[in-house]
Amino acid sequence: MAQLIDTRPVLLPKGFTNKKFLNQLDISNAFLHGSLKDKVFMQQPPGFVDASQPSSVSKLNKSLYGLKQAPWAWYDKLGHALLSLGFTNSKSDCSLFVNTSPYLVIVLVYMDDIIVTGPHASFCQDFIHKLSFMFPAKDLGPLHYFLGLEVYRSSEGIFLSQGKYAMDLLLKTKMEGCKPCAIPLGTTKLDHLGNLLSNPKGYRSIVGVLQYLTWKRPDISFAVNQVCQFLHCLRDTHFQAVKRILRFLKCTVDHDIWFKKGFLHLTAFSDVDWASCVFDRRSTFGYCVYLASNLISWNAKKQPMVAQSSTEAEYRSFALTATEITWICKIFKDLTFPLSHTPTLWCDNVSAISLASNPMFHARTKHIEIDYHYIRELVLADLITILYVNIEHQIADIHTKSLPKSRFHFLRSKRSLGAPPISLRGCK
Fold first, then answer.
1. Domains (ranges, CATH) in the chain?
2. Minimal CA–CA distance to 1: which of 419, 417, 325, 410?
3. Distance between CA atoms of 76 and 71, rounded to whole angstroms?
4. What pLDDT shows up at residue 422?
5. Does residue 40 have a pLDDT over 70?
């Protein structure tokens, strides 16, 4: 297994140090700074009505909270400010801005919350100082909590946790005292048998929160995908499956994902459970992408159409995984860190590998849509390498099917998951 994932010692890009700058900013009243380009009229607010013109309306020049145009107006205002400071907007991710002159400064924007990072703290602080002249920006210091994610930094790397978010969910659902469970989903497939739920709204609310948890919990991605497929016809058996996921979270509430130092080398695993859905016979595919030994991207999803063979299902999964790899490569290029090694994609289906590498198999693939042949173009251009991996070492297997306890824990151990060196919430 160690030969499939790059676990060599760290090789940092030129100019980077282990203790790079990583701070969080907050913009006060961000939406009020945006300038409206569309014509928007507003009625006079209660208590501020002009007695001489009580029925008149006002034309807004600036955005207000609650307007549909407010987020875009703020983003446009901030984007132009960052461009004036020498930043360029990433073509692959509109929330990413990069400045490489004279040294690298990276800015990631989510509404009014901003992350600033770079190898040189002085240049990052200089950018924050300049931005504070344009907007009321507040430096919140080193990043510790962002969008429900707890961030802990140590000499080993960066630990991202949603433990507090998961504990809040357990408290909300009154499951904080439940009996822990070792795996999130049983081996029996969910069906439409059982009694209808009397409160479907509560079920949908819990599932929505669980979807957000999959940001940093790849071990529950398949289980959450399964319970999400029954939102329109809810049975008590489905709610029992959701409770089992919550019991698993109780057992692993502090187990989240580590990002440790390593080589800039992409490795991906792609897998499919062919015709696994008993209702429409669509296949469930999953992938996981590693940067060195760090899991950085994963997915568990049902394919949008029925595959006529396991080879076709695997081939379609190739294309979707390759799309994710291509996007990650573009992000690294925008960050001025182009990958020096060709990304490697591991698969356990020899026929699919041959289909992706051999352009002469047209007679067998006439029914496959053209966009799925994208993977073949990448292979021929030597932009991706597809290799065979034994099913026992197929790491993406955890994203495509329910697994026995021993198999689940074996694959889970390959996902950089673990507990933080100290409690992020303090002693209780």
1. 21-154 (3.30.70), 163-254 (no CATH), 262-393 (3.30.420.10)
2. 410
3. 9
4. 58
5. yes
